[in-house]
Amino acid sequence: MNKPLQQILWNQFGASIDMLINVVSSCPDDFFTTHRRFYYIAFHSAIFLDYYLTIPPSDFSPMLSFTQKDEQDRPEESIGDFIPDRDYSKQEIVKYLEHSREKCKQLVEGLTEEKLQERFKEGDEPEDMDYPMLEIILYNLRHTQHHTAQLNMLLRQHLDIHTEWSFRVGDIHKA
Q1: Which of 64, 87, 92, 164 could form a disulfide with 172 if both were Cys (CB 3.0 to 4.6 A apart)?
Q2: Which residue intervals define the domain DinB-like in the entry (predicted)?
Q3: Whole domain around residue 80: which residue ranges?
């Protein structure tokens, strides 16, 4: 893969992850433990950042365990069907995000024309994801930024806390 394009991709995806790490880190501990919606979005973001970086997804081995639950068995504040097996601390989620940040950097820096031909393929059912490598990377970047924005909004609305914008990787979280 073209090296300048790899650098651009890492600059932007890394900045997105930096912003996610920053918003979770900026959340006061008491809000993190009591505002369940914030907690579940942070957990969901950490799990799926890692999951979408795992090629093939059948090799996914999360650092934080969860149980997949039917809708009627999920807490009201949760998002999605992956429910944490226990309450993880803010520090555990930040550590997981930092681990995934490094995993993402290695994935992007290791992209070759051959690697770009690989696919993120969950299974053979019609609703299963089956994306080319570049598309799952861009999908993951958008997913990460979407939930980062939600977390920022919750901090702003409830605590009037504003977190930093990152133009490129390393602006707010040293590379």
Answers
A1: 164
A2: 78-151
A3: 3-159
